[in-house]
Each structure stands twice: as structure tokens, then as C-alpha cells.
Design a protein that fits this description.
462 residues; 12 strands; alpha/beta; Rossmann fold; Arc Repressor Mutant, subunit A; 3 domains; globular; single chain; Trna Endonuclease, Chain: A, domain 1
């Protein structure tokens, strides 16, 4: 089942239609759907699709050679080229006669085993770019390798690519396409549980309740998701134990660098290096209050919902999960789901605002949005604004998001207005987002003010 990725496929097909040499780099985290995009794109085209494996140069060359000869002869072959240069040059020349797609998936595995591969590709691209119709795709899951060894200024292939895609997990709206049969409220919960990574979305069954899905995945030692975070870290980093401790600390509320360092028992300089890598992997995100650059106020949170849910609930229940006490484990998790979903709902609301902006339907033409937190100078109390954005020095947007079973009442709107008084914008606009709607008093006040938009969760799904 292939879902979404219309933008990526449209761009690839547009480039393919040029009928001249094209070189596209596709990279992103594991399980995010890179190979699926390539397969969908190659489906109706003359294509040589080769996937590198973590082995030596000889084995990868033999596998690559088989792909080439099977493309040419349409039957299995055991012949092997003497070198990657000979194999690639053959394909470049073959594509002088017809449009051919050559996709090398897991390129870092091949390039690490064959140190001269990047320079060979550079040589052949420069030699044949004006005569060949080859459509070359290099794809990789090791984002640091792809960024440093393929895309970076000092890399041999720098300046040769004609396009690149960093494939990201789906946002909420696209993720919903994976579970059409779930009740609307459960769609948000499903997104909060596994995020937007296609491989994780496929683990959920939309014929089951959220409770049963949690039991079948996170609380089932035999499921693929149960050990997924640990396995992914082992594949991506050299010292997974320290990374594991850092993620666990952040997931359980230690958000400042000093707090994380103390919890993990490592120097802040050490933690900073590990956290930087986690940010580049898309697992952790770094935040400062909206509109501020102060590193003193920097906090860290888990960006990937699968990691966020796993580290929040699985480690503390590992002992009972391993003993098959699924019901007991779920009953320990259930009371905290609504609080957990607060942060998820904030992210869904931000995505909704971006959709409004791109469709020309947002009340202000903001340039960016984010969270703001700080101290009220009058009361000396800490306050937080869920969403804040600005269009210019005079115009700002303030938002509050409530994932509760009670309707949002007037006090929430009044509280948001009060918090916005810390900022001296002439034109202020307010968005209130609610899981279950708004009281009549809140609706009446919003109508009276004229600069308030009330958005119910159901409306966000339309």
C-alpha cells in the first residue's frame, strides 16, 4: 500500500521528463519510506534498482552486476564486471540510447566498502553528463554520511546533483490516511503513539481500538515496535547506551542540558555532542522561546512520537511486560494518555496553522510559529504560550491548545489574552484549539472581540 508523497513523486517525474542526465539524492531516517518512493517512481520505467548491503566491495559489485545484466537480458545472470567503474560506465553508455533509471539504495554501504566509488561517479558524470539520458538516484539512511560525503561542499559529488530530497515523516493529515476506519479522536491518539513514519504506521490496525493497538505493539515483546528504538540506535550510533539514557531523561521531563547531564551522569560537553547527533537524526528537537536566541533558555524534547511514547511508557514497565502482564501495563499507562497527548495536540495544531497559511486562509501571514515560555515580570510567575507567531513587528498570533474532555471556557481565552499583554504588538490575533469544543460564554466573547478564531478538533480533520 503506497500512500502520499505526491510532491516528491511529482518532482521526480518532472525531472524524468527532461530526458537529459539527472542526478537526485534521496536521504532520510530509516523506515521513513525512501525505498517505497523509489519503487513507486520506478514502477513504469526502465530501471536498474540496486540495494547495497553491509559487506565488502566484491560482494556489492557482484550484486550490482547481476542487477545490470538482468535488466539487459531480462533473465538471471552470474556474470560480474571487473570493477564498479566498468559497471557504471556500461550503464552510462547504455543510457545514451534510451532513458534509464539507475537507483542505488543504501549507497553508504556501497561507498564505505568501495572508497573510490564517489570519485568514480564524479569522473563518469563529468564525462557523460552531456550525452547520457541516465536518471541517477543515490539513496541512503545514514543522514550524516549523505550530508557529509554526498551533499557537502568538500564531497567529490558536490555540484553534480540536480535535486535532493530529505524525506520526512508524514504530518498528521497524511498519517490519517493509514487508519481511515478509526474514530476521529483515535486518529490523533494513533499519530501520538507512532508518529508519521510509514513503517510504524503500518503496525497499527484501524480495525482495533487504540487500547488494543498499544497492547499489540508497545506491550507485546514479540512485536517489531517493542525493540525498535533500541535496534535503530544500534544501527545509527556507536554508543547506544549513552544515547538511550539521554533520550530516556528527556522523555521523562529532564529538558535542560544541565538537568539531562545530571540525570545521565555525564559532563554537559559530552551530552551536548550526543544530543546534537540525536537532533540530526530527527529523534530530539532543540527549542528556544519563540523569537529568542538565548541558549540559556534552550530546552530539548523528543521530536519523534514513536520514540517519545516508547521512552515515556515502556522502560518503566519492562518487567511486567516481559512477564506477559499486558493488562496491568496498560492500566498504568492509561491515566497518563491525556497529559501525554497535550504536546502531540500542540504539534497537530501548528501543522494545521501551516496548512491554513499555505492555503491563504490564516488570519495573519506569519513567517514562523513556535512555543514561548518565560517569566511574567509583574507576578514573577512562569508562563507558557502554546503557539506564537509573527507577521511583522506590529502583528502577532497567539494560540492555546486544549486536549481535554471538557469544553474550553471563557477563562482560557481570557488567560491567553492576559499572557499576550507581555508583548507590545498593535495587532493581536488569537486561536483557540479544543478537542471537544467551546462553551457558549467563550464563543460569545470570541465573537465580541472579533480577533479570535475557535477551532474544534473535528474541524481540523475536514
Amino acid at each position: 500500500m503506497f500512500i502520499g508523497r505526491e510532491k516528491e513523486l511529482s518532482t521526480l517525474n518532472r525531472l524524468y521528463a527532461s530526458d537529459k542526465f539527472e542526478f537526485t539524492v534521496i536521504y532520510g531516517r530509516r523506515r521513513v519510506g525512501k525505498t517505497a518512493i523509489i519503487n513507486e517512481f520506478a514502477n513504469d520505467k526502465p530501471a536498474i534498482c540496486f540495494t547495497g548491503v553491509e559487506t565488502n566491495e566484491k560482494q556489492n559489485l557482484e550484486n550490482f552486476s547481476k542487477c545490470i545484466f538482468e535488466f539487459v537480458t531480462k533473465k538471471p545472470a552470474n556474470t560480474s564486471f571487473p570493477s564498479f567503474q566498468a559497471a557504471l560506465e556500461y550503464v552510462f553508455e547504455l543510457a545514451e540510447e534510451e532513458r534509464i533509471l539507475l537507483a542505488i539504495d543504501e549507497y553508504p554501504y556501497v561507498a564505505r566498502a568501495s572508497k573510490s566509488l564517489a570519485s568514480t561517479l564524479q569522473l563518469l558524470i563529468d564525462k557523460y553528463k552531456d550525452t547520457t539520458k541516465l536518471f541517477l538516484i543515490l539513496c541512503g539512511s545514514s543522514m550524516s554520511y549523505m550530508e557529509d560525503q554526498v551533499l557537502a561542499y568538500k564531497a567529490p559529488l558536490y555540484g553534480r546533483r540536480t535535486a535532493q530530497f530529505k524525506v520526512q515523516p508524514f504530518e498528521f493529515q497524511e498519517a490519517c490516511k493509514y487508519f481511515n476506519k478509526l474514530p476521529n479522536e483515535d486518529k490523533a491518539l494513533a499519530y501520538g503513539i507512532v508518529g508519521g513514519t510509514p513503517q510504524y504506521l503500518l503496525q497499527l490496525k484501524d480495525k482495533l481500538s487504540i487500547e488494543d493497538n498499544i497492547k499489540n505493539t508497545y506491550l507485546n515483546p514479540a512485536s517489531s515496535i517493542y525493540e525498535e528504538p533500541q535496534n535503530l540506535l544500534k544501527q545509527e550510533v556507536r554508543e547506544p547506551a549513552i544515547y538511550n539514557a539521554i533520550i530516556a531523561a528527556i522523555a521523562t521531563g529532564y529538558t535542560k542540558m544541565s538537568e539531562i547531564s545530571t540525570k545521565v551522569g555525564e559532563d554537559t560537553s559530552v551530552c551536548a555532542t550526543y544530543i546534537k547527533n540525536l537532533v540530526s537524526l530527527g529523534i530530539v528537537k532543540k527549542e528556544t522561546p519563540f523569537g529568542e536566541d538565548s541558549t540559556r533558555k534552550t530546552i530539548y524534547s523528543i521530536e519523534d512520537n514513536m520514540f517519545r511514547f516508547w521512552y515515556r511508557f515502556v522502560p518503566e514497565n519492562t518487567s511486567i511486560i516481559s512477564r506477559g502482564a499486558t493488562e496491568l501495563a496498560y492500566n498504568r499507562i492509561k491515566p497518563h494518555l491525556s497529559t501525554y497527548m497535550g504536546g502531540v495536540f500542540e504539534e497537530i495544531c501548528k501543522q494545521y496553522l501551516w496548512t491554513l497559511l499555505l492555503n491563504g486562509k490564516c488570519v495573519i501571514d506569519f513567517t514562523n510559529i513556535g512555543r514561548w515560555w518565560g517569566t511574567n515580570p509583574k507576578t514573577r510567575q512562569q508562563i507558557e504560550i502554546d503557539i506564537m507567531g509573527t507577521a511583522d513587528k506590529n502583528t502577532a498570533l497567539f494560540g492555546e491548545c486544549k486536549w481535554t474532555n471538557e469544553k474550553v471556557d471563557l477563562s482560557v481565552l481570557e488567560g491567553l489574552v492576559k499572557k499576550s499583554e507581555l508583548f507590545h504588538y498593535q495587532n493581536k490575533h488569537y486561536y483557540l484549539f479544543a478537542k471537544t469544543g467551546f462553551t457558549k460564554g467563550c464563543q460569545d466573547k470570541a465573537h465580541e472581540m472579533g480577533n479570535v478564531v475557535l477551532v474544534g478538533y473535528e474541524e481540523m480533520l475536514e
